[in-house]
Structures are given as structure tokens and as C-alpha cells.
Amino acid sequence: MAEPVGADAGTTIDSAARARQLQAVLNHHSALYYSGKPEIPDADFDELLRELQALESQHPELVHPDSPTQRVGAPPDTAFAPVRHEPPMMSLHNALDLGELRAWNERVHRALGASKPTVQQAELTLEDAVAEPTGEQALPVLEDVAAEQALPVLEDAATEPTGEQALPTLEASAAGPTLENVAAVEQAVPAYSVELKFDGLAISVRYEDGVMVRAATRGDGRTGEDVTHSVRTIVDVPVRLKDPAPDDPAPDDPFPDRAPAVLEVRGEVILYLSTFERLNARQAERGEKAYVNPRNAAAGSLRQKDARVTAERGLSFWCYQLAYAEGGPDFSSHMESLKWLESLGLPVNQYSARLDDLASVEAHVTDFERRRHDLDYEFDGLVVKVDDLGLQARLGVDAKAPRWAVAYKFPPEERTTRLLDIDVSIGPSGQATPFARLEPVFVGGVTVATATLHNEDQVAAKDVRPGDTVIVRRAGEVIPEVVGPVLSERPEGSEPWSFPPNCPICKEKLQRAEGMSATQCVNYRCPRQIRGRIEHFVGRAAMDIEFLGERNIDRFVTEGLLGDVVGLYDLDFERIEQMEGFGQISVNNLRKSIEASKQQPLSRLLFALSIPEIGQVNARVLAAAFGHIDAILDASEEALAEVEGFGPIIAASVRAWFDNPDNRELIKGLRESGLRMEAEAPADATAGEALPQTLAGMSVVVSGTLEGFSRDGARQAILARGGSSPGSVSGRTTALVVGADAGASKLRKAESSGVPVIDETDFQMLLETGELP
Ligand code: IVH
């Protein structure tokens, strides 16, 4: 994060004071975390913890017994009965990138005496292993055997290798110390099991004689809180284990007659994303605050006194570690123990994999990092464990975590930073959007300095205020968002933010229409809107005018060369040629491109005009329905509403736009500049030979069902012959064609305006000859 929580910006503080400050801040957040109400993301906590660890290792005199570095977590809440963990629930060391993962791998190798061999070392190792194997030297060469039955083999190898176990060594040796052999030697290192690192809450669950007797949170690692009542409601956690010793075990049952008398497993309580979304929807319905993320929601749910509340939250569970077993089989590997736990009915995640070397581990973690958002639950990294239990025992643990495992953490997707200010940006159509100016923070793989706050209501709902420390989230490729404030960090005397009354660009009053969430600058001449209209107008999907980027538009508008869209057709090219960055060639290109745009068909023009609700698709439909801009200028709101897929909202929007005198003036200007105001010929006409333009200049309205034409087919037939086919009858209508169930209002309008009403046979005739009966 850009500025550590609680640090005084710009002040130099000495190490002792900083350590005390970090200890206090971390203890504060640790307590919040364990009460299910964390305020800052884990990544921020970890970073502060790392800073403190570094300080304390430089200055050991600063280590205080109460320092968070001396404890795994916060002491448990006494509200829930304390449960002592045996063995303790340890934490994991983190690897924040592949480099740190490699460093951990090297440490494992060094500790096991399996340092990465060079060619010379490999030769030595191989020869020595054959001549006089010791445990240390034998280790790297027993690859295949280790995969099968690692522990006994390694131990036996150290003392007295048998022919079987020594075989790989002999083979390698017989082939000679070539480079391939060296690769084989490198692969002979301990295999790893790799699992998802679930982003939830660790719990320990105890079974006695196959029955779940207790479940507890991690607490400080040694003592947690009894949450049996809550955990019993989690469907994934079996209340009774499956009997692994049925009367007639299957012949291929790897674990016959080994019912554990006592079993203690560790795993993670999580909330599926879909369940989390449902939970938040319900919170909203009840007018209650949304949970910021599934983990917080899971924590809050687990620590409910009333188990009925927990039950309705729909928690889930993944079991990832066997902590203790009495009366179970002997395992040589972690993966084997997981398979056994699965056979007892415990939920073991399907993405656990056993991988032979670091290269495969790296490929695997990279792959899962890509797929981070493909699952219905959150995982914030992968846990890599030395699979062989004998090797785990040799590696041991340190004060905080095992040496045989590491958590490879993905880059954080949530961080805190300072909200410097809330500004308002004006979009091309005048929409005023509040956005956060942030102290830059690295989150979700990018540096974020701004984030949208959407609209006035969103700012109020989140109650974020300038000066707040806020949580910023960027998950996947989505745009960054401000999740909410860290209330404990709020500066004194801060006030809720209020929407500025005026447009930051043109200073006119902003407006928010009744019932709408958006605030608007409604000044048609606001420079931002002018630029916005021009930018949109020249766009590739609109009039497709090249050589006019945002920067040039900005320059032309600022220098008074361009007042609005219509000005594009009256540019002073001589002046432009004198401008820096322009030459004759680029001016000529620009001129050609502008000239060519005049031939764009009506659908593109309609899209280019930035009419609210009229995107590319609606523009095409509108152009096809009316054929000519004049028909749209005259069309009633009802007629517009009848256009396929339109309805009253779009119709009202189009009508309002065309009724605005500024827009009518704009159309007039564009027409005078020589722009084409007609629809393109329909596809069937352009594909084959052009049809005789029998209906040129005519406007034919169709109502009801015809036998020989679909609704759209009739319209296409009219357009293909040069006519237009609006949705309603006006004084300018040439004829109204009526089929079965024709609209009564159209008939009435036709009669009152003296428009001829014809049937399908007459329509056929009209199409062919252009003549009415
Ligand atoms: S093994 C002694 N495996 O990560 C090893 N932990 O930062 C104990 N976690 O407290 C942990 N997924 O809450 C392990 N597949 C997994 C895990 C996992 C998530 C959590 C667990 C632990 C924390 C350590």
C-alpha cells in the first residue's frame, strides 16, 4: 500500500517508535480480524507485519512479548469456550512471487542436503551413492522409489540400501553422468503436493469413534474458540465419519479396517461466491449492510451464538490437513492421508496435485493464477507442501510455521490507500460521474490512482469521504472499485461528501432528474459535451473519420476551429496546415476522410448523433424503419414506439432529441453540408441486381399480418424499391397496406388524412409498378 496504516505521512520516526506503532496497529487489526470484523485487507496486514518483522530482526531489543510477531494470531474471544490445539494450528510462510517460491525450494533442498547438483557434483553424487550411499547423498537419486514409498525408502537407503532401492542409482550410474542424468538428479528432489489456498477461516475438527465431538477456530494457534455448535450446521462437515472398515471391504480398498479412534483434521470454512451474493442480496432486502467479501461473511457467520443463523448462511468446508489420528493407517505421504480423509467422507478439494519438481509446481501455480476467478469460491494462492511425511519430519517447524510448506500468494486484489479527493468527471453526453482520486496503490496487478464511484447514491451508500483510508479492490480484469472506508482511520471532523452543484467544465448547474441515479450537465454547449459529441461522431462505428484523435479534436475546439459536429464540414484547412504537427499530407488525408464520411448511410448518421438510447443496433433498426431522416423528424412518439424492439422509453428519447431545436438546427446544417440522409439499400437489394426504384420518394405504412410477407419482409420490399416504411400514418404517407388484424388507430388516421388504404394484392401491384389502384 502507498502509505502504511497509521504512519504519519512525511514524518521521520525512529525505529523504536515505528515498531511500537506497528505493534499497536497490528494488534488492533488482529483483534478486529478475530472478531470477524476485519477492516483492512490481509495483504496490508501482512505488509505491516513484514515491516515489523524486519525492524525487530534488525533491532532485537524492540521485540516485545506482546508484539504480534510473537504470536500467530489474536487471543481468542472468551465468549466462546477456549479449546487447546494439539498439535498447534500453525501459520504458513508466504512466497509473494516465483522468486520467493524458488528461494523456499532451495531452503528445503539445503535442509535436506539435496542441494541442486552441478554436473560435477552430480557425477560425484552418483558415484558416491553407488559406492557408499549415505542418507544425504542418496536422497536426490531415489526419485522413482521415493514417489512410491518415499519414507521407508529414504530411511532404509540411509542405513542399508537394498538392490531394489538402489536400482535407480545404478541405472543412472550405468548410463554415465550425462546432462540428462543431471536433469534426472534434479528431479530426484522431494515431490510436492500443491493445493488451493482457500480464502476463509481455519478450523480444527475432532472426531472420536467416528463422531464429530468438537470444532474450534484457530485463535492464536495454540488456543482457539469452541464453535462446535456452528460447525455442526455446515453440511460439508460430516457429523459422523463414513465407516472405512465395512464388513466386506472392496478388494481394491487401500484403507481396510482402519477406523480412527480419534481423528483431528484441519480445514477451511468458506462461503461460495454464489452463496455470498445471495446473502448480500438478502441483507439488502432487509435493509442491512452488505458484507465486503465472502471471508468476512464466513467469519461473521461462524461466530454466531445462534446456530440457526449460521445454518441459514450456507457455509462450506474444505479439509486440507490431517492433524492427528489414533488408530488409522500409517501414511508415508500427505496426499495419501488426504485420500484417506476423503474415504472417511471429509470434503477434500479436487484440485490437489502431487508434482515431482519445482518446474511443474511453477507451471501449476501460474496456471491456477490465471484461473483464479474461474471457481465459485475464492482462493488467494496455492499451498505447496513437501509431500513425503518423513521429509516433513526432517524439515520440522519454526516458531510460526512449518518449514515443509509455503503459501504462494497471488498479488493482492484488495489494498488500502488514502482517498485524496472525490472529483466529478463529465462524460461525452454530459453525465456527471463522481470518481475517487487515490494515493496510487498497487492492487490486482496494476497501479490504481483513480476509481469510479458511479453516482451520488453510491458515494452515500459507501459513505466514503475525502481524507479517508479506503479499501480498493481490483479483481480479475474488472475496473478498480472503492469498497468502503476503514472507519477507525477516519480523520476527525470529516464530513460526508456532497455532489458539487456545478459542472466542473462549463460551471452551469448540474441536474438530477426525479427517479434517476445519474446527475447530468444539461448545457448543450458545455465544451466537454461538444468534444464528446465530436469524438463520438468521428468514431469508427459512426462516421469513421480518420486522422482526428481526441487530442486534435481538443486542439481544434480550444483554438476555435471547431464549434460542434457540423463544423467538421467547414474546417479551415489552411489554418490547420499551419498548425504544429500538421502538414499538407495529413491535412489532405483528413479532408478526404471528412469528404468520404458524407456518403455514410442513415444508420451510421443516426448512431453518430449521440441520441440517448440509440446505439448501433437501434440506429440500424430506426434507419430501416423510416428510410429517411425526414420521416423520423416527423414521426410521432407512437410511431416510434412501434418500431421493432423500441417501446415507449426509446421512442420518448428519440422524439425528445429530434424536438430539441439545437438538434434540428444541427440536422439542417449537416444536410446543407451535403450529408446523405437516407438509409442504405437493404441487403437483398444490394446482393443481387438492384430492383427498379418504383417507390422512390414514397412512404408506405404496413399494418396487420400479410400472407405473402413477414412484417420485416414487407418493410424490406418497400425499402428495396426506394420507399420508406415508417411505423405510423401521417399526412405524407402514400398508402396504408392492411392485412389481418390491422391496427384500428392507423386506419382511422389514414381515413382522416385521406391516405389511400390498400390490401395485399394492391400492395403487390404498388411494389411492381409504383402505382396505386
Ligand atoms: S496447511 C501447518 N493448506 O492458510 C499447515 N492451509 O496462512 C497448516 N489455508 O491457517 C496450513 N488453504 O487457514 C493449509 N490448502 C491449505 C490451505 C491453508 C488455506 C490457510 C489456513 C492457514 C493459513 C496460513
SSE layout:
Elements: H1 15-34, H2 42-58, E1 82-84, E2 94-95, H3 98-111, H4 119-131, H5 135-138, H6 143-159, H7 163-175, H8 179-187, E3 192-198, E4 201-208, E5 211-217, E6 223-225, H9 228-231, E7 262-270, H10 273-285, H11 294-302, H12 307-313, E8 316-326, H13 334-343, E9 353-355, H14 358-370, E10 379-386, H15 389-395, E11 405-409, E12 414-426, E13 431-443, E14 446-452, H16 456-462, E15 469-473, E16 481-485, E17 510-512, E18 519-521, H17 527-538, H18 550-558, H19 573-578, H20 584-597, H21 602-608, H22 616-626, H23 629-634, H24 637-641, H25 648-659, H26 661-672, H27 683-687, E19 700-703, H28 711-720, E20 735-738, H29 744-753, E21 757-758, H30 760-769
Parallel strand pairs: 2-11, 19-20, 20-21
Antiparallel strand pairs: 1-6, 3-9, 3-10, 4-5, 4-7, 7-8, 10-11, 12-13, 12-15, 13-14, 13-18, 15-16, 17-18
The structure holds 2-(butylsulfanyl)adenosine.
Folded structure, characterized:
The chain is an alpha+beta fold. It is 40% helix and 16% strand. The strands form five sheets. Strands 12, 13, 14, 15, 16, 17 and 18 form a seven-stranded antiparallel beta sheet that branches. The protein has a five-stranded mixed beta sheet with strand order 2-11-10-3-9. The radius of gyration is 37 Å and the shape is elongated. 2-(butylsulfanyl)adenosine binds next to strand 3, strand 8 and strand 11. 2-(butylsulfanyl)adenosine (IVH) is lined by residues 90-92, 195, 197-198, 202, 218, 268, 320-321, 383, 402, 405, 407.
